[in-house]
Specification:
- The chain is an alpha/beta fold.
- The chain folds into 2 domains: 150 residues, Rossmann fold; 111 residues, Rossmann fold (3-Layer(aba) Sandwich), CATH 3.40.50.
- Strands 4-3-1-2-9-10 form a 6-stranded parallel sheet, with helices on both faces.
- Helix 1 links the parallel strand 1 and strand 2.
- Helix 1 crosses helix 11.
- The protein starts with 5 loop residues before the first strand and ends with a strand.
- The mean pLDDT is 96.
- It binds D-glutamic acid (DGL).
- The site of D-glutamic acid (DGL) has 17 residues, from helix 3.
- The site of D-glutamic acid has 17 residues, from helix 3.
């Protein structure tokens, strides 16, 4: 069988929270993960930067044999996905596919709220793009969406400070802030794949009765549906249950911390762009 793993991309570690759920739902497939840790965080980068880094990474996945790449990063999905799908893919190879995490999440999030008031927690890039406001309005026009950029949260995670007093301060600050904007919110979406690592802190500072939604299972379910509806893609993906990991950052550091996100030991290789 040819080597055609499913590519999974993130600015750093966050996409591993998605990969973990993809592997749980679809264990037979091969996966190739790339974390662009050397250039993370993406959340405060310009459109041009996020687009250039993401496109370079997508081309790398294609050169490794992938036909399907998941941008397991909300910021890259918000800033680069559409342009890559519309402008680059037709020129690179119209049979290849790049999918993101914003649309599958937006398709289901409205079903999870009773009050029809939800809060989106994301990076500055994701929030400023208004991608969630636009996408959720398409599927659930009656749902009220409030947004909150949490610029410190990714750094807390990337610097392994998720248990620190800084984490207490910034997690509480942003939870209080979004809930003060709309008291009817009953559902908070963690619209950044790094944030599930802060889940204990987020739960600690979120009032009872408000549910916190991570994207991993939603994205996994959506990929499962996609593969069953796109048989050509499904048969072309290799299925030996292999997983390979690359980082543009420090390999030792990546291996040390990545297991927390993925829930199993990881031995990554270095990629230099
Ligand atoms: N994990 C990424 C996301 O889902 C972004 C983190 C970053 O700012 O690099 O948005």
């Amino acid at each position: 069988m040819s080597n055609n793993p499913i590519g999974v991309f993130d600015s750093g570690y966050g996409g591993l929270t998605i990969l973990k759920e993809l592997v749980a739902a679809l264990p037979e497939y091969d996966y190739l993960y790339l974390g662009d840790n050397a250039r993370a965080p993406y959340g405060d980068k310009t459109f041009e930067e996020v687009y250039a880094y993401t496109l370079q990474s997508v081309e790398w996945f294609f050169n490794q044999g992938c036909s399907l790449v998941i941008l397991a990063c909300n910021t890259a999905s918000a800033k680069a996905l559409r342009t890559i799908q519309q402008n680059n893919l037709p020129l690179i190879d119209p049979k290849k596919r790049v999918l993101g995490v914003i649309r599958p999440t937006s398709e289901v999030i409205g079903q999870l709220t009773d009050t029809k008031h939800i809060g989106i927690m994301g990076t500055q890039g994701t929030i400023q793009s208004e991608s969630y406001l636009i996408e959720i309005a398409k599927f659930f026009p009656d749902v009220n969406v409030m947004q909150e950029a949490c610029p410190e949260w990714v750094s807390l995670v990337e610097k392994n400070l998720y248990g620190s007093t800084e984490a207490d301060y910034f997690v509480k600050y942003h939870i209080d802030s979004i809930l003060s904007k709309d008291a009817k919110i009953d559902t908070l979406l963690l619209a950044c794949t790094h944030y599930p690592i802060l889940i204990n802190k987020i739960k600690q500072f979120t009032p009872a009765g408000i549910q916190i939604i991570s994207q991993g299972e939603i994205v996994a379910k959506s990929l499962k549906n996609y593969l069953s509806n796109h048989k050509e893609m499904e048969v072309s993906c290799s299925k030996m249950g292999k997983k390979e990991f690359f980082t543009t950052g420090d390999v030792v550091d990546f291996n040390e911390h990545a297991s927390l996100f993925f829930g199993a030991d990881i031995v990554a290789k270095k990629l230099i762009f």
